[in-house]
Design a protein that fits this description.
Layout: E1 8-16, H1 19-24, H2 26-29, E2 30-33, E3 36-39, E4 42-50, E5 71-72, E6 75-76, E7 78-83, E8 89-96, H3 104-120, E9 126-132, E10 136-143, H4 147-154, H5 164-171, E11 182-189, H6 200-210, E12 213-218
Parallel strand pairs: 8-9, 8-11, 11-12
Antiparallel strand pairs: 1-4, 1-7, 2-3, 5-6, 9-10
Helix pairs in contact: 5-6
Length: 235
């Protein structure tokens, strides 16, 4: 599970001197000393998280700073800080509540999500929930703790089609409001996209902007009964 994964924070010291920095603030970047023109280079500390798995998908945690190399545009960067400590997480949950999730599937999804939030999230972690059928909507904005999520999901009744890509496009901009550097999305669904206006290329572009990892969980159960809107009220 994502909560068991150890975040490896690698801080990269990226030293750059170029047109962007000089153009942004030329008065601060250029000084005259004894008649000579002096240029100052900007120094930026970039934080990154890494999750390492072996060829079987099992987590690898006994790594040191020397086990990592970071490159930017083909150039090696200097690692200045390294820790194996767990990093606070901003987690987005994207939950399928389409018609095919009715019955045991949505019950299983609620139970798994409730246990995950209650047992594996730390006090500094935050979470939001986007639910989707043929239309996505944010069911729970950023919050801490499982109670608000649990109460909202108990009211959800599955109906409609499945628009996974549209749901991801709705959810990913939420990470612009997160408070933690480490970000992840858990996508829970029982099937393929059947009705999105967006496509996988749109999602990939948005993912690059959000800097979030995505973990997909497939839900399956013997009870695949569908139910129409008359019997199953809209959420």
């Amino acid at each position: 599970m994502i909560g068991d994964q150890m975040g490896l924070t690698v801080a990269v010291l990226a030293v750059s001197m170029g047109a962007v920095g000089l153009a942004a603030a030329p008065e601060e970047q250029r000084r005259r000393r004894d008649g000579a023109e002096v240029f100052r280079a900007g120094v930026e500390l970039v934080q990154m998280s890494a999750t390492v798995v072996d060829e079987t998908g099992r987590l690898v945690g006994d790594l040191d700073q020397d086990d990592f190399e970071v490159f930017e545009d083909g150039e090696p960067q200097t690692l200045t800080h390294f820790t194996r400590e767990r990093i606070p997480l901003s987690l987005g949950v994207v939950l399928d509540v389409s018609q095919s999730m009715f019955g045991q599937r949505i019950d299983d999804a609620r139970l798994a999500l409730d246990q995950f939030l209650a047992e594996l999230l730390d006090p500094l972690d935050e979470v939001f929930v986007t639910v989707f059928n043929h239309e996505p909507r944010v069911a729970v904005p950023w919050t801490i703790g499982p109670r608000r999520v649990r109460n909202r999901l108990n009211d959800i009744r599955p109906y409609g089609g499945t628009g996974i890509y549209d749901a991801m496009m709705e959810a990913l901009p939420m990470f612009g409001l997160r408070v933690n550097q480490r970000a992840a999305v858990v996508l829970i669904s029982d099937g393929s996209d059947t009705g999105s206006e967006a496509d996988v290329r749109d999602v990939r572009r948005q993912l690059r902007r959000s800097d979030a990892f995505v973990y997909a969980i497939a839900i399956d159960a013997p009870d695949t009964r569908a139910i129409n809107d008359r019997v199953n009220p809209h959420a």
